[in-house]
């Protein structure tokens, strides 16, 4: 039980907490004089019920206020921007809607002239691969 509690403190996933409580139920049945086979069955049953019934709502409640917006590179995917220096498959520069200026390459669309509205298709290291924005979005 103690080992499960220590692991739970390191993982914070509530799995080992449920296993530890199951072990506590087995210990309680031992103190009441139950045979070993019943202690094992009781500990396993309590742990299984807690894992299946109690853990999911607890995790949902624990993560209720977490921020689900993408961050880091994921937040840049699909972001609009404008070409500052001609973007080709080898070089270029864009200014993204968030104000950042990135080294850019064309994502297989040929050369993109300065001033053209673009959208980030992917990020590879410190390079944004961009493609021209669809026409209906630029008007």
From TrEMBL:
Topology relative to the membrane: Multi-pass membrane protein
Domain named NfeD-like C-terminal: residues: 73-132
Assigned keywords, A-Z: Membrane, Transmembrane, Transmembrane helix
Matches recorded under Gene3D superfamilies: Nucleic acid-binding proteins (2.40.50.140)
Keyword Transmembrane helix listed: yes
Highest taxon of source: Bacteria
Residues in the signal sequence: none
Transmembrane segments: 7-28, 34-54
Subcellular localization(s) per the UniProt record: Membrane
Protein name, as recorded: NfeD family protein
């Amino acid at each position: 039980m103690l080992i499960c509690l220590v692991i739970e403190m390191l993982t914070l996933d509530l799995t080992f907490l449920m296993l530890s409580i199951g072990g506590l139920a087995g210990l309680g049945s031992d103190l009441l004089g139950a045979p070993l086979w019943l202690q094992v069955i009781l500990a396993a049953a309590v742990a299984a019920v807690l894992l299946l019934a109690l853990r999911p709502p607890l995790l949902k409640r624990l993560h209720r206020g977490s921020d689900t917006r993408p961050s880091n590179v994921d937040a840049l995917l699909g972001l609009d921007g404008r070409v500052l220096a001609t973007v080709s498959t080898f070089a270029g520069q864009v200014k993204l809607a968030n104000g950042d200026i990135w080294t850019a390459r064309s994502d297989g669309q040929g050369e993109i002239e300065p001033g053209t509205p673009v959208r980030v298709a992917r990020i590879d290291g410190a390079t944004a691969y961009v493609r021209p924005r669809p026409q209906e979005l630029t008007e």
